[in-house]
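Q: Sequence in, structure out?
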Amino acid sequence: MRVLDLTDDLAFNGARLLVGLGADVVRVERPGSPALSRAEALHWHAGKRVVSAPVSPAALDRLAGQADVVMESGPFGELRGVRTDSGTVTSRWPRAVHVVVTPFGTTGPRRDWRAGDLVAAAAGGMAWLGGKSGGPPKPPPREQATQLAGAHAAIGALLGLIARDRIGQGQLIDVSAQEAVAATLETGAIAWIHAGRYPSRTGGVYEHVAHRVFRAADGHVAGGYSGSDRMWTDLLAWMAECGEAEDLTEDKWSDPVFRWRGREHVDEVVARFVVRRSAASLAEEGRARALPWAEVSTATSLPGNPQLAERGFFARVLGAGLPEEGVTDVGFPFARLPEDGVTGVARLPEDGAPGVAAPRRPVRLTEPLPAAAEAPWRSERPRGRRDGARGPGARPLEGIRVLDLTWVLAGPYATKTLAEHGADIIKIESRHRRDPTRFAPSMRLRPDAGIDDGGYFVNFNRGKRSVALNLRTEPGLEVLRRLAAECDVVVENFSPGVLARWGLSYDRLAELRPGVILVSMAGVGQSGPWRNAVTFADTLAAMSGLTSETADPGQAPEGLTFGLGDMVAANAAVLAVLDLVAAGRGGHVDLSQLEAMAASMGPAVLEAELGERPLATRPNRHPRMVPHGVYPVRGDDRWIALAVRGDEEWRRLAEHAGLPGPASAGLEERRRHEDEIDAALAAWCSERDGEALAAELQGLGIAAAVVATGRDLVEADEHLAARGFYPVLEHPLIGPVRHEGIVVRMSGTPGALTAPAPLLGEHTDRVLKDLLDLDDEELARLRDAGALE
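A: Exactly. Output:
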């Protein structure tokens, strides 16, 4: 795969992910691009060849003509590869799969608006969820908004290649950074849709699950007691064994509704238990008891993580002036499969016992090297494999059937994305293995919701068919095996070894369905010393090092109050499936959600190894942009984010707002007076209406946006409304209900939301009749055996 990289920081991650998939990536530098630190340049661009600016339009056209994928990002008005004709945006290079990432998309009233990570996080609703009540909002660290945009760009590139092989032509693919963020809020917007409220800043305490960061004797841990009933009963047993359960052993606390209402008291008791123990011992005992607890790690300590090290996760980057053996960087969300189609991390025997560890070889990347514009490619351009099975307009994954054995968020988020682009998702569910998003009252969002109309489940499971199977019965397992033989892809997030115990190891699946793709989404992977660890999104963030960077200077880490780790892992799972589909082969993808989250730490590990100062040492600030922050505007708890790139933008802002100091002040002078500038900006902004001010600043060419709440996104954002980002589906119990929309917008083979989330077991009979040719008598026998519950 030849990729022409025309990205700025809005989509650096997209091109990097394609490097991780083995793509031959040639980067064309933009004239006047800001200089990156050594750690940034090595992290984002290692493994690429770089053609330095300036590059003539003719040379650029020649490079694009030689590429399979062109990935471009930046403000809409500065893109080099798009044309507008009568309001329609088209690609200058129609034969290529042309992925365009802009702050707000290529259509809509705000398509010319600017944004980097902070402003995109604000406009997309993510910044609103971070920070302390009463203080300014702040987005997650390490530029998660633009990393999400890049991940969707990589997904779009592979979808485009799959579509090209089917329809014989390229297309323009539109990714809005705002929408990439807005689709990754967990309950941030859907709580408004379903309950007329939205979560706010809590300093790290989850609103809908009982998880948070706790202070330990020598550091911090992340953990809690939501999920299955066992998460509570086993934690309580642990505390009781130590004589520290206090009154929580009283019968009233066994009622999950009562316990949820008394969460503040429960947390106080748990906090007293935790603070008496070291962080490492709590994490170790938690893993031994299969409970979701983890030590809060740092970027400096991350390379010493035994799970990541044994699995060969880290990359080695080689380059001039570096040690001969290179320097350590975070790796990629998953290892690209060798030609035998099996990830080399560990082979598990049929009984599911631990196999002999066979770590993948660490990725070795070379610092970005110069290349001539005339002949930059290292690879022969592969010939496309057009199968002619679809015409224009068909979704790229139509004809692919997916067996969905996932629950909660990470797996369902991945399979709903596959559904959007045409895959037929057969979701296996049961009353005997209760998905908390169906059955836990706190996750239904509306107090009157039941198991079939809870808002959380409805949003993340649209477009799927539900088959009820009791996998505690042998007839139920036999039906599952027969269904697996009819599916092209299997996605599961069980603990390691479960699938093998059911007779569905990868080897067995490949016998049942040659060429099958199996994606295993265990919390930390199928192998390694922590392979049996139970993880939630908060524990993944803690282990990855991300949680540690949510701390304000001199204060405790706050953590994240939404499942970012789940959705980052989900995007990686989608990418893994598409990579194999595009290559036309099967394989077993051992996807560690921890590795996916650690891969989103950006250049943090390299900074530590190279002795560079971290990119941001205070919330909402940036090393190359001053001012860069979140400021109050008129109204109760209303805020605006803005970011000034360069001296000219500062001059325009300073003159417009009457800010202190000379309008000609350079970056270093502004940094010396940053506190003073921030105070003056806060006073000026506080008297202004946020929406009007954002439009005013954008008119001056300065990136700005209101820090959006869930209500803002769904009800008040004219741009998202114009782009139809919250489409309505008719649910049989709720009626018409909005859903979060599709991020990857394909001009030639567009995705679609085709059906609401299923009722539990709604499609059992129809699927078993159509795929397995079962008749009514056979279905009745299975029902009598308790297999279809």
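The chain has 30 helices and 27 strands.
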